[in-house]
Each structure stands twice: as C-alpha cells, then as structure tokens.
Amino acid sequence: MEKSKKILIIAFSGLLIIVLIISVIGIIMLGDEPVVLQGDIEATEVRISGMLPGRVEEFLVQEGDSVKKGDTLVVISCPQAEAKYQEVAAMREVAVYQNQKIDDGTRKQIIETAKQMWIISQSDLKLASITYERTQRLFADSVVTSQRLDEVKTLYESAVANEKAAHQQYELALAGAQKQDKESAKAMVNAAGGVVGQVTAVLKDAHLTAPEDGLIANIYPKRGELVGTGTPIMNLVVIAESHAVINIREDYMPYFKSGEIFHADIPALALKEVPFKIYFISPLGSYATWKSTKQAGSFDMRTFQIKAKPTKPIKDLRPGMSVLVTLKEH
C-alpha cells in the first residue's frame, strides 16, 4: 500500500510538471504570436450627373468599362431645352436688330420691337411663375430637393427682372427718349446674350463626359428613362486614387506615423510585403473596440482610421480587396 501511494504521488507530480511545462511553452508561443490588422482598399468615387433634365437617349459605356478623361459617357435628349435655345437665340437677334436700328431713329419699328420683347418676357415670366409655384408644392411634399427649388426660384427672379427691363424699354420707346433707348438697347443685347449663354451651358450636359480616368462601377437608369437635374446617372471609380483604409486600435498607434511606410499583404493578388505610405490619420477617435473589465487600470480603447497609398502603382488593384498588416509586438 505504501509503495502504491508513492507511485501515485510520483505519477501525479510528473503529470503536474508536464502540464506546467506545456502551459509555459503555450504562454511563450502566444506571447510571440503576431497581431494581424485587416483593412480594405478604397478609391475615390465620382457620381456622374448633369444640369439637363431629359430622357436617356444612349449609353456609350457599360458597367466595368475603362474610360479616359473627356470620353463621352451618355447622351441625354431634351427637346424642350433645344426649343428654349431657339427662342432665346431669336430674342438675342431681335435685341441686336433693335440696337442696330436705334440710331436710325425709326421710332415705329423701335416701338414695335420693344413691345414684342415685352410680350415675350411676359410669357417667360408667366411660365417661370407657374413652374416656381409648382416646384414649391413639390418641395412641400418632399418630391424635389431644396437645391432644385433654389434653381427654379433663381429662374423666376431672372424672369421678373427681364420683364421689368423689357417694360421699361417699351415705355422709353413710347416716350422717344433717344439716349435712354440706346443704353437700354445695349443692355437688352447683353441680357439676351446672357440668357443664350445660360441655355447653351445647360445644353452642354446633353453629352456627359468623364471628369477623370477610371472604371464605370454602376449605371442607374435604363436607356429611355427620364432623369432630372442633378440625378446620379452612373458612378466612376478613380482607380489611380486607390488607397488602403485600416481602423487601428489606439494601443497600436505607435506602429503608425503620418508620412511613414508600412508593409502589407494583399491576398486577392497574392502579393506580400507591399509598401504603403501613410498620408492620413483621423484626428478624432471613433467607437470603442475593447471594453474595460474590473481589472485595475483598464479602459475603453478607441479606434483611429488610417489611410495609406501604395508607393508604386499596383496592377489589377480594386476597391474592396483586403489588406493585411502584421505587427510583431515588442
């Protein structure tokens, strides 16, 4: 019995020693285990939209296409805007004609021209007033944005000013004030030219072009659908501005300094130790990634966002790819 007890004690002691050795080895191995931080590749996205409301006539690109700056992406048809351009161009011709004839003192023609200009401006004011009232109701129902309401309001105010100027011109023509006629005629030419320029600028958006080199990510409307002013038509991803975004717990911040270079793996491209240069560290910490316990000295650790660009262009790099950064703690 005595001998059995000794054997049992020796066996238990040996087992305890083995457990302690394994525990120590495990602690040492865990202490040397590197920390792996995961981030993502992101890139600048540009929403393609225009000032011209109309119908999508033709798409010249598809999702996934690579485009160059200045390439035409989509064609929008707006017969109303084209008709408006014809109208304002005719008004400008009338204004130029009046300005040319004013020095001849042909009072009858001047008066008739001023009257026609006033009638046209009254028609434009009526249309602008109706449009403004309708847009106010749509804004109250949250159908249109405040930006659209402001644009319509500006057009309405412009129509009011044009109507007043045309009326004053008509009254001056009736009064026969030759000097005032000349100044007013010049002003009308300038005003008409300004309106033509405004409509021309809007019509330029009938052919929307790429503002940067990149890839077409998403196309929202279908061919033949109506789009409004400022409606997003497609997304352009500027691949040249791809960068890594990593959320860093604050106790790892000493490993990352602005302007410094760190190395990361990109599994999707089977690339190892790719150098990235940090160009941005968020000035304010966001959400807590680690909650405190009852241990003395513990606290909530905040998260800081870091952005870094590859030091050299990386072929086939795409937004959404994972970026792995391995930290060897010391």
Quick summary:
This protein has 5 helices and 13 strands.
Q: How does this structure look, described?
A:
The protein has helices spanning 2-32, 79-101, 107-140, 146-175, 178-203; strands at 35-48, 54-59, 66-67, 72-77, 207-209, 214-219, 226-227, 234-249, 261-266, 271-281, 288-290, 301-310, 322-327. β9 (261-266) and β10 (271-281) form a beta hairpin. By secondary structure, the protein is of the alpha+beta class. It has 3 domains: 33-43 and 239-327, Elongation Factor Tu (Ef-tu), domain 3 (Beta Barrel); 45-76 and 207-236, OB fold (Dihydrolipoamide Acetyltransferase, E2P) (Beta Barrel), CATH 2.40.50.100; 78-206, Four Helix Bundle (Hemerythrin (Met), subunit A) (Up-down Bundle), CATH 1.20.120. 44% of the residues lie in helices and 28% in strands. Strands 1, 3, 6, 8, 9, 10, 11, 12 and 13 form a 9-stranded antiparallel sheet that branches.
Task: Write a concise keyword list for the protein shown above.
single chain; 330 residues; alpha+beta; Elongation Factor Tu (Ef-tu), domain 3; OB fold (Dihydrolipoamide Acetyltransferase, E2P); Four Helix Bundle (Hemerythrin (Met), subunit A); 3 domains; nine-stranded antiparallel beta sheet; four-stranded antiparallel beta sheet; 5 helices
Oligomeric status of the shown chains?
Answer: single chain
Provide the CATH top-level class of the largest domain.
Mainly Alpha
- Count of individual beta strands: 13
What is the succession of H and E elements? Answer: HEEEEHHHHEEEEEEEEE
N/C terminus separation = 53 Å
Q: Kindly state the mean pLDDT as a whole number?
A: 78
Strand proportion, as a percent range, falls in 25-35%
